[in-house]
Amino acid sequence: MPVGSLNINAIRCKVGHFLADENIQDGTILDNICMGNNDINFDKITPVADAIGLTETIQKMPKGYSTHLVSEGRNISKSTKSKIILARSLIFNPALWLAEGEFMFLNRRERHKVFDFILTYLKEKTVVISTSDPIIAEKCDRIILVKSGTIYAAGSFRELENDSYFQEIFY
Fold first, then answer.
1. Backbone angles phi, psi at 10, to 5 degrees
2. Burial per residue of 16-52, b for 16 or more beta-carbon CB atoms within 10 angstroms, e otherwise
3. What's the pLDDT tens digit per position in 33-76?
4. DSSP secondary structure letters along 60-125
5. Does domain 3-140 have CATH number 3.40.50.300?
6. DSSP symbol at 34
């Protein structure tokens, strides 16, 4: 299929991403989650927001989902900002989900809970995560270690955990 005939909006709806350079835009919390997609409703948002711990935070805000956020999320905590961006990446139930980072905005217990949810929610989907967090890596079916731009090793957490390079990355 020629690249020119692809519908870029249809492709964007199939790919969710939680990347380090993403940010909050000037607008409401709801605007920042839906990003102009009018097909998103609270039936889609609520389970995701509940599972990642965002609902509790939003309920404490006087205007809830209508709370206005300033550009770059300067009027909310880094944790809340990250959870809004995470919700944005998941609500479309993407066929491909890309993530990078250490998810340190979540404490250890929350990381377990959130990643259990993500991997269940996206069970039949492709999930690619770049991380050096052993909590996240241990939940993945397959780990690919990249060293100097090439694949160094691949396998499960248990298969790789005694490798010295694996130890260097994750511990």
1. -65, -40
2. bbbeeebebeebebbbbbbeeeeebeeebbeebbebb
3. 999 888 888 999 999 999 999 999 999 998 999 999 999 999 99
4. TSTTGGG-EE-GGGTTS-HHHHHHHHHHHHHTT--SEEEEES--TTS-HHHHHHHHHHHHHHTTTS
5. yes
6. H
**Collapsed DSSP state (helix, strand, coil) of residue 10:** helix
pLDDT tens-digit series, residues 89-137: 999 899 999 999 878 899 999 999 999 999 999 999 999 999 999 999 9
- In the chain, where are the structural domains located? 3-140
Closest to 18 measured CA to CA, from 77, 87, 107, 75: 87
Q: Is the pLDDT at 10 greater than 80, yes or no?
A: no
The Cα 149–Cα 157 span in angstroms is 21
> What's the farthest any 2 CA atoms get from each other in the chain?
51
Distant-in-sequence, close-in-space partners of 153: CB < 8 Å, separation ≥ 6:
144, 145, 160, 163, 165, 166
